[in-house]
Amino acid sequence: MKKIGTPLIIISLCVLVIVVLFVPGIKTSNKKIPEKSSLNSDAPKLANFDSLELKAAATLSPELKKEWEVIHKQLQEAKHDSDKLKSMYSLGFLWNNLKQYGLAGKYSYMIAELEPNYKNWIYTAQSFYAGTLMSNSRAEVLLYAMKGEKAARQAMAIDIESLDAKNLLAEHLIAQDKKSEGMPEYIPLLLQVLKKDSNNVQAIYNLGKQAIKSGQLDKAKVRFEKLIRLQPQLPDNYGELADINIRLGNAKEAVANYEKCLSLTKDPTRTEEIKKKIKEIKQ
């Protein structure tokens, strides 16, 4: 089932924090300023920021496209960091307003390279996370997740105790779906989050999904039952729990979960899917 509840909260937060980010004046740290952005240095071959931005720019209205062209040219011709930052803020704000969060992340990443502080890196990780949720392209998701991982690690290097940074790092590692021997890196991160905040819904959700993936259905059930207690109005949690109960052979519980999910769901397509599942169980 597509992850909807918690990510929507993150997207909403991302919209707010990106607006804050794209306001000049955040103090810079004393870290060395890179001479050239490393945005495309390890990007997947099927996606890079330059081609994605050109493609997105081609879909803009004539007025917005002209605005983008002017600011983009100003950035290319800028000689001083202050001028570069002004153009980066403007371009990031433009793409953020258009809900092109991955492209907004491109510019917040560039800003963070010039002004490497916790706020800039965490906002960048949030923007790329929103980008992974909004994209249907696997190549784009990988690109955003790889850069989001770097941004989250930079934020953690500044504040090792940051729960937001740990959650975002976990999200970007999950999005990349890297093959690894033994326990995935994001599991300890999420457990650290829960140790400090036992009701952290983002960490609970991801640990629940990982438990499903690894076949630990009893653990997954406990996670999603807790999510329902914390987010009783979120339909997808009931749907996840219903799917788990079906696999555990708890048909009666599954039907009750689906019926609750149905009562809260407003998506017509999802409604029909749930009705079909309930019918199949009762046959």
List key phrases describing it.
283 residues, mainly alpha, 0% strand, disordered N terminus
The residue ranges in which pLDDT falls below 50 over 5 or more consecutive positions are 1-20, 23-36
The counted number of beta strands is 0
User: Strand pairing plus helix content: what structural class?
Assistant: mainly alpha
Termini, distance in Å? 23 Å
Characterize the main sheet: none
Give the overall pLDDT as a whole number.
87
Put simply, the count of helices is 14
Q: Provide the succession of SSEs.
A: HHHHHHHHHHHHHH
Beta fraction: under 5%
Radius of gyration: 21 Å
What overall form do the CA principal axes indicate? Answer: globular
Query: Fraction of residues in helices?
Result: over 70%
Describe the fold and architecture.
73% of the residues lie in helices and 0% in strands. It is mostly helical. The chain has a domain at 1-26 and 46-177. α3 (62-77) packs antiparallel against α4, α9 (186-196) runs antiparallel to α10 and α12 (235-248) runs antiparallel to α13 (251-264). The longest helix is centred in the middle third of the chain and has 21 residues, at 138-158. Mean pLDDT is 87; it is low at 1-20 and 23-36.
Put the structure in a nutshell.
With 283 residues, this protein is mostly helical. Helix content is 73%, strand content 0%.
Write the topology of this structure.
Blueprint: H1 5-21, H2 49-57, H3 62-77, H4 81-97, H5 101-114, H6 118-134, H7 138-158, H8 163-176, H9 186-196, H10 201-213, H11 217-230, H12 235-248, H13 251-264, H14 268-282
Helix pairs in contact: 1-4, 1-6, 3-4, 4-5, 5-6, 5-7, 6-7, 6-8, 7-8, 8-9, 9-10, 10-11, 11-12, 12-13, 13-14
